[in-house]
Design brief:
The protein has eight helices and three strands, in the order H-H-H-H-H-H-H-E-E-H-E. The protein is mainly alpha-helical.
C-alpha cells in the first residue's frame, strides 16, 4: 500500500515539476520582455511551486518509510510537515510579490505589452488543469501534502488571472492606468497569502495531534462496540500521522471476566477496527470492569 501510494504521489509531483518549470521560464521571459511586474511576480510564484513540489515529493517518500527503532510509530508526520513547508513558502512568496509590486507602484515604468495577455491566458488554463489533476489524486491518496501542492497550483492560476486583469486595464486605459498592473500584483499577493494561511492551519493541527472529525471517532466507537464482550466504549482517542491513525480505546467488559478472556476481547477489537478501517495502523486497548449505571 505504501509503495503504490508513493508511486502515485511521485507521478503527480513529476508532472507538476515539469509543468511548473516550463511555465516559470515562459512567464519570467514574457514578464521581462513585456514590461509586466505582475507577470514577473507570477513567474516567481511558479518557481516556488517547483520547489514546493520537491518538498512534497520528499515528504511522501519519508512518510512511506516503515517504522524503525528510532521511529516506532512510523514517519507519517513527514507529510503534514511537508504541507506546512509548502504553506510557508506561499506566505513568503506573497510577501515578495507584494514588496515588488509596492515598489513599482510608486515608480514610473513602461506599460506592459499586449502579448503578455496571451501568455497569461494559456498559463491560467494549464494551471487550472494541473490543480484539478493534483486535487483528484490527493483525495484518492488522502494526502495533505499533495492537497497542499494542488492548492498551490490553484493559487498560481488565481495570481495569473489577477495579472491578466491588471495588464488588460493598463493596456485599455493607457499610460494613466499603467499602475493597474502593479495593483493586480498586490491582489495576487493577497490571494497567495490567504491560501498559504488556509493550508498552514490544518497542517499544524495534524502536527499537534489534533483529533479527527467527530464522525470518524463515532465510527470507531461503533465498530469497537460491535465486538462480542464489549459492554461499553468509555474513551476513544485518535491521532493522525499522514494517512495512518493511531487509536487508543478504553473499553468496559464484564467485571467477573478472566484476564485471558478480556485480553482476547481487546485483540478482537483491534483486529475488527483494522479490518474495517485500513487507515488504522495501531490500536491500544485498555480494559476496564463494566459497572452498570456508572459513567466516568
Amino acid at each position: 500500500m505504501r509503495r503504490t501510494r508513493l508511486q502515485r504521489g511521485l507521478r503527480v509531483i513529476l508532472v507538476a515539476m515539469a509543468v511548473n518549470l516550463s511555465l516559470a521560464a515562459t512567464k519570467l521571459a514574457a514578464g521581462i520582455w513585456g514590461h509586466s511586474n505582475a507577470l514577473i511576480g507570477d513567474a516567481v510564484e511558479s518557481l516556488t511551486d517547483l520547489l514546493s513540489s520537491l518538498i512534497v515529493w520528499r515528504g511522501l517518500a519519508v512518510a512511506a518509510a516503515p517504522p524503525d527503532k528510532e521511529h516506532p510509530y512510523g514517519h507519517g508526520k513527514a507529510e503534514p510537515l511537508a504541507a506546512a513547508a509548502v504553506a510557508m513558502m506561499l506566505l513568503f512568496a506573497a510577501v515578495g510579490i507584494a514588496l515588488q509590486a509596492g515598489h513599482a507602484l510608486f515608480n514610473r515604468h513602461e506599460p506592459p505589452e499586449a502579448f503578455t495577455l496571451w501568455v497569461l491566458g494559456a498559463v491560467i488554463v494549464v494551471k487550472e488543469l494541473l490543480y484539478r489533476f493534483a486535487l483528484r489524486e490527493a483525495e484518492i491518496m488522502e494526502s495533505s501534502a499533495v492537497r497542499s501542492d494542488a492548492w498551490h497550483h490553484r493559487s498560481d492560476a488565481i495570481t495569473s488571472l489577477a495579472a491578466a486583469v491588471g495588464i488588460g486595464v493598463a493596456l485599455v486605459g493607457g499610460p494613466r492606468w499603467a499602475a493597474a498592473d502593479d495593483v493586480a500584483a498586490l491582489v495576487a499577493a493577497a490571494v497567495v497569502g490567504f491560501n498559504g494561511w488556509r493550508l498552514l492551519r490544518p497542517a499544524l493541527h495534524e502536527l499537534m495531534d489534533a483529533a479527527p472529525d467527530e464522525d470518524d471517532r463515532r465510527r470507531l466507537r461503533e465498530l469497537a462496540g460491535e465486538v462480542e464482550g464489549v459492554q461499553r466504549v468509555e474513551k476513544c482517542l485518535v491521532r493522525k500521522a499522514g494517512v495512518q491513525w493511531f487509536v487508543e480505546l478504553h473499553i468496559e467488559v464484564d467485571a467477573g471476566m478472566t484476564v485471558a478472556r478480556a485480553h482476547a476481547i481487546a485483540h478482537a477489537v483491534e483486529d475488527h477496527l483494522q479490518a474495517c478501517l485500513p487507515a488504522v495502523a495501531d490500536v491500544l486497548v485498555h480494559v476496564e470492569p463494566y459497572e452498570p449505571g456508572f459513567r466516568s
